[in-house]
Amino acid sequence: ARGIRPPILTDRGLEAAVAALAARSPVPVAVTVGVPSRPSPPVETAVYFVVAEALANAIKHAQATRVDVRIWRSNTTLVAEIEDDGRGGADVSGNGLTGMRQRVAALDGTLRVLSPSGGPTTVTAELPCE
Fold this sequence. Notes:
It is a single chain. By secondary structure, this protein is α+β, with helices and mostly antiparallel strands. Helices cover about 35% and strands about 25% of the residues. The protein is built from four helices and five strands. The protein has helices at about 5-10, 15-25, 40-60, 95-105, and strands at about 30-35, 65-75, 75-85, 110-115, 120-130. A five-stranded mixed sheet has the order 1-2-3-5-4, covered by helices on one side. Helix 2 (about 15-25) packs parallel to helix 3 (about 40-60). The chain is globular, with a radius of gyration of 14 Å.
């Protein structure tokens, strides 16, 4: 299981793991995490990989020059919102977004993608967490 879940996520939690993703990004990434306690490992892992994929998409496809990652807890829901300033027009049926949607749905969550032509693109994952 340790090979599937990044060690920094296991050892230091979601905020540190997402900050590490941001630090490796070739475009500036602002990270804001407001989660008072750690979510369950499956939820934490799903959010981590949604953020990783959304960042990869912003860099590879959107020609983004900036990405904002915001993660917070709202009652019994963990929300992750990734917004880039790229060109928009994301292919919601593409493999990356389909994989994100399936990962989130497996935990009874939802994934929304708003990506009008001209941008920005906003990916929002909402996952239940008790």
